Amino acid sequence: MQRQTALMNIEQVRFNMVEQQIRTWDVLDTDVLDLLHTLKREHFVPPPQREFALMDIELPLSAVAADAVTERMWSPKMEARVAQDVDLHGFEHVLEVGAGSGYLTALLASRAARVTSVEINPTLTQFAAANLAKAGISNATVTTGDAARGWPTSAPYDVIVFTGSMEVLPEEVLAQLKPGGKIFAILGKAPVMRAQLITVTANGGRSERTLFETVVAPLTHAALAPGFVF
């Protein structure tokens, strides 16, 4: 009886999260909203943080990897917003730079054909891969490596998602996209950062759209803006 009550309580908290946090942040795609109910976020959170899994906060991953000082799970609304705004349709090959806990990886994999996720911290690689396996996600692979400038090994991609911020987008990343491909990246320096969706056109041009303003920790080895020369 206690277990049944606990399950009912967490589902009520999940419902509140979706209705009060997610929808109010312009996440209205019903497929994404449904996915938040079926893909249990608490199963991806470090055990000491599980009671906070559905709260509107970033969660540190240092409990899993002590050397992951700056790595955090995004807030649920941020994960949902990105899953919606990259607009996947089930056929895409996605590169995710920074797997973290694997939850965003799972959201992307649930809406794409294939996800290649590259995580620089080997302990988090193992954590994310184990979480994905337990969730039954079989179309995502997590590899240890530095993909701050992309991951040419598995290119080309339909979509690239960077989970840490950068001052500028490295130009070489654009060459790893298929025509019509797109990149989600958070660009700028604190306290001014903008989430951008960059789309490459078939003729080699590109368009950029600002989705929202935010501040997240920089990607390890993130590209820096050129300094002034006097």
Verbal overview:
The chain has helices at 2-22, 30-38, 76-85, 103-109, 122-134, 171-174, and strands at 59-60, 72-73, 93-97, 114-119, 140-144, 157-166, 177-189, 192-200, 206-214. It has 230 residues and is an alpha/beta fold. It has a single domain (2-214), classed as 3-Layer(aba) Sandwich (Rossmann fold), CATH 3.40.50. A seven-stranded mixed beta sheet has the order 5-4-3-6-7-8-9, with helices on one face. A two-stranded antiparallel sheet has the order 1-2. A hairpin with a 5-residue loop joins β8 and β9 (206-214). α1 crosses α3. The radius of gyration is 17 Å and the shape is globular. The N and C termini lie far apart (72 Å).
Please count the helical segments: 6
CATH evolutionary superfamily? Vaccinia Virus protein VP39
Q: Using the CA coordinates, give the radius of gyration.
A: 17 Å
What overall form do the CA principal axes indicate?
Answer: globular
Helix content: 25-40%
Order of the strands making up the biggest sheet: 5-4-3-6-7-8-9
Strand segment count:
9
Q: State the low-pLDDT regions, or none.
A: none
What is the overall pLDDT average?
Answer: 93
Number of domains: 1
The quaternary organization reads as single chain
Q: Major sheet: size, sense and barrel closure?
A: 7 strands, mixed
What is the fold named in CATH at topology level?
Rossmann fold
Q: Return the string of H and E elements.
A: HHEEHEHEHEEHEEE
Give the strand content: 25-35%
Distance between the ends:
72 Å
Per CATH, which architecture?
A: 3-Layer(aba) Sandwich
CATH top-level class: Alpha Beta
